[in-house]
Amino acid sequence: MSLCPDLPRPGFSFDNCKRNAALESRGYKSKGFVKTGTTIVGVCYKDGVVLGADSRATGGNIVADKFCDKLHKMSNKIFCAGAGTASDCDKVTEMIRGQIALLELNSGRDVRVASVVRIIKQYLYRYQGHIGCALIIGGYDATGCHLHSIAPHGSSMELPYLTMGSGSLAATAVLESRWKPDLDLEATKKLVRDATAAGILNDLGSGSSVNMVVLTKKGNETFYPYDIVCAKGVRSGLYDFPSGTTKVLRTKVIPYEIEKVEVRGASEEDEPMDI
Amino acid sequence: MMSHEPEPSPTTCGAPLLQRGFDPYRDNAGTLVGIAGEDFAVIGSDLRLSLGFSIFSRDQSKLFKLTDRAVLGSSGCWADCVSLNKFLEIRLKTYGFEHNQPMSTKAIAQCCSTMLYSRRFFPYFAWNILAGIDEDGKGAIYSYDPVGNFERVPYQAAGNSGPQVLPFLDSIVGKKNQSNPDKAPITKERAINLIKDIFISAAERDITVGDGTHIIVITKDGLEEIRLDLRKD
Amino acid sequence: MALMRDAIFHSEGFDPSSQMSPCAETRNQSLVAPRQRTQEPTYMSGSVIGLCYENGVLLAADMGATTRFTRIPHQPRILKINENTMIGVSGDFADFQYLEKIIEAKMIDEERKNEGFQMKPRSLYVYLSRLLYQRRNNFNPLWTNIIVTGMQDGKPFMGVVDMIGTAFETNLYSTGFGNYLGMGVMREAVEKHDGKLPLQAAVEALQSVLRVLYYRNTAAFPDYQIGNCTASGVKIEGPMRIDSEWEIAKH
């Protein structure tokens, strides 16, 4: 078995792109997909990396998921925060995680952040941006802590602090004014929280709460959620219907023959059924 | 492959037609809910003015107080909403000077429709709900489309969350598809609380709804305003 | 009945593309095409940032205009209109200069009438919103976003008008790229002081936004002006230079 699985030879086939364009020009509407208008943030500090993400998934103007998880575990000490098309981020990270697990088993070592980045960016580049993943990958490996970002087209960069997603501009403003080299853990967590919260509050595509993961040489520590920035509103009314609201149009009784009847004695420990 | 390129038009002299950058419309979102009762009408709007994913203002009511017995809610392209209401204000003032009395709600309803239709081929991109008290002292809600089609209805939801809110109103206020529903007319308190709850719920699921809601209750005694904070994300 | 959206998008009315000629090179085209209008900006200026504080209102903008390939530095974009009004304009630079002329003519006209009162900021804001909306209706927009600020009857006032006539009053705003980058910083500053922002904190917030814009916006300039309008009048300071820190970039 090879250490690196072979990549399928030719690049992405664009036949379907042409077909889809032709269909659309004749009035066919392609199905919508869930895009996570997102704020994801990553910051290096002296002992590791902190990744943060908001928890809103949107489909158009509708919130599809208020508490979705945008922090994907790649290995014990490497996490990946994803922005863009939700399913692309989920599936790409899931698939690469499998490859990485095999790589670790084959080599008997912890995989490096650079390897994860390389595998993902080569995969994304082959699809020329048609896989809509904007990722921040952070982790701790034998060479220290690293933080990379990968754009959907496959370009990547390594920086001490990064943000991506629709809320990245709001988050950037916080990071640019407050980031310093060699922050301690608490200050970094606060910075990541505030940068993500800036995205949550000022970008409509991001919302709800801040999820966070801290990656150090000891492993990972997750906070789901780290902070609920905007809590659910409380309604004053009850909107249930009295029984009998649904009109009974017809009744038909089908006798059901029971051959054996076994009655269990009700004990006091039995809880009433949830209705 | 089949060619779908358009015939070169005479104005371009064979050069390909370029797409120009100017779009006169913006969708600034906004949600409106109105409920009419026996002797009152309630109308509410959210306070968020947005474009795309960015928030322009967290405190912009979409309700325009026209007279002391009629309020118009406008959402959509904010430039059009503001302009429509400016022109409407002028019409109402002129009417007031000419007739020495404010325009009745029914007349305002017709006036709105006429003004919207005057721009039939370059429409005001605005969804409107007019709430008020009619000549008999009964609550009235008028619902519009952007080119002036209008109808008097017992309740209406419009704007960005309209499609989500209207079925709920049909069920709770309209009592549609229910056997032996309680057909007693809705009370003022119930209507106000309902609109509050609707905006709280809409803020949960619609990204353009949030920050706050502005509710105006119209009775024969005048207008009563209520404000409520919503989530800010 | 075709309602709502259908009515707008399926209307057979004004087709803007039929009014425009797409390419100016062809000689006989100008004979065929009815009108040529500025529907694309050329020299553009960046963000204008406005913030109301405790007893006044601030306006800040970097100084300069750009195309995709060229930069003209040292262009002031904050205008003092009178002792209680100032405006900041971003967008097409030629349109800004045209606006400048219109407003100046209006001020001279007011002075000539000598009726003993000055234009208030809200009047100018409404006037500009109508002007820009009318130009938009004629498909001949003034490609500008304007922040009108000043003291309206002793209270800080800020009105925003954009190129299609969108008009609203608010307490903080940034046009252009700063709309994404800077609004969070300003909102945080206002919330931190519970709405009663002192001048010093307001200036710091604006400088912080300008700095981030300079870091992150390719079209931004390091020189900026800050205009301050209080009950005692309008004062525009600058040009000043952003104190930027590039050591961080080496990490």
UniProtKB/TrEMBL annotation, chain A:
GO cellular component, one term: proteasome core complex
GO molecular function, one term: threonine-type endopeptidase activity
Gene3D superfamilies documented for this protein: Glutamine Phosphoribosylpyrophosphate, subunit 1, domain 1
Localisation: Cytoplasm; Nucleus
Record keywords: Cytoplasm, Hydrolase, Nucleus, Protease, Proteasome, Threonine protease
Taxonomic superkingdom: Eukaryota
Subunit architecture: The 26S proteasome consists of a 20S proteasome core and two 19S regulatory subunits. The 20S proteasome core is composed of 28 subunits that are arranged in four stacked rings, resulting in a barrel-shaped structure. The two end rings are each formed by seven alpha subunits, and the two central rings are each formed by seven beta subunits. The catalytic chamber with the active sites is on the inside of the barrel. Component of the proteasome complex.
Function: Non-catalytic component of the proteasome, a multicatalytic proteinase complex which is characterized by its ability to cleave peptides with Arg, Phe, Tyr, Leu, and Glu adjacent to the leaving group at neutral or slightly basic pH. The proteasome has an ATP-dependent proteolytic activity.
Protein's name according to its UniProt entry: Proteasome subunit beta
Originating organism: Galendromus occidentalis (western predatory mite)
Gene of this entry: LOC100903317
TrEMBL record, chain B:
PANTHER family: METALLOPROTEASE TLDD, PROTEASOME SUBUNIT BETA TYPE-1
Subunit details: The 26S proteasome consists of a 20S proteasome core and two 19S regulatory subunits. The 20S proteasome core is composed of 28 subunits that are arranged in four stacked rings, resulting in a barrel-shaped structure. The two end rings are each formed by seven alpha subunits, and the two central rings are each formed by seven beta subunits. The catalytic chamber with the active sites is on the inside of the barrel. Component of the proteasome complex.
InterPro entries the UniProt entry points to: Ntn_hydrolases_N, Proteasome_bsu_CS, Proteasome_sua/b, Proteasome_suB-type
Keywords: Cytoplasm, Nucleus, Proteasome
Localization: Cytoplasm; Nucleus
Gene3D superfamilies for the chain: Glutamine Phosphoribosylpyrophosphate, subunit 1, domain 1
Protein name: Proteasome subunit beta
GO BP: any one term: proteolysis involved in protein catabolic process
Keyword Cytoplasm: yes
Function (record text): Non-catalytic component of the proteasome, a multicatalytic proteinase complex which is characterized by its ability to cleave peptides with Arg, Phe, Tyr, Leu, and Glu adjacent to the leaving group at neutral or slightly basic pH. The proteasome has an ATP-dependent proteolytic activity. Component of the proteasome, a multicatalytic proteinase complex which is characterized by its ability to cleave peptides with Arg, Phe, Tyr, Leu, and Glu adjacent to the leaving group at neutral or slightly basic pH. The proteasome has an ATP-dependent proteolytic activity.
Family as reported in the entry's similarity comment: Belongs to the peptidase T1B family.
Domain of life, per lineage: Eukaryota
GO cellular component term, pick one: nucleus
Chief localisation class: cytoplasm
TrEMBL record, chain C:
Protein name (record): Proteasome subunit beta
Keywords tagged on the record: Cytoplasm, Nucleus, Proteasome
PANTHER family given in the database record: METALLOPROTEASE TLDD (PTHR32194), PROTEASOME SUBUNIT BETA (PTHR32194:SF6)
Biased composition (Polar residues): 16-31
Gene3D superfamilies, alphabetized: Glutamine Phosphoribosylpyrophosphate, subunit 1, domain 1
Native species: Galendromus occidentalis
Subunit structure: The 26S proteasome consists of a 20S proteasome core and two 19S regulatory subunits. The 20S proteasome core is composed of 28 subunits that are arranged in four stacked rings, resulting in a barrel-shaped structure. The two end rings are each formed by seven alpha subunits, and the two central rings are each formed by seven beta subunits. The catalytic chamber with the active sites is on the inside of the barrel.
TM annotation in the entry: none
GO biological processes: proteolysis involved in protein catabolic process
Primary residence: cytoplasm
InterPro entries referenced in this protein's UniProt entry, alphabetically: Ntn_hydrolases_N, Proteasome_beta4, Proteasome_sua/b, Proteasome_suB-type
Stretches for region Disordered: 13-37
Similarity-based family: Belongs to the peptidase T1B family.
A GO cellular-component term linked to this record: proteasome core complex, beta-subunit complex
Function: Non-catalytic component of the proteasome.
Cellular localization per UniProt: Cytoplasm; Nucleus
Any Pfam family matching the protein: Proteasome
Source domain of life: Eukaryota
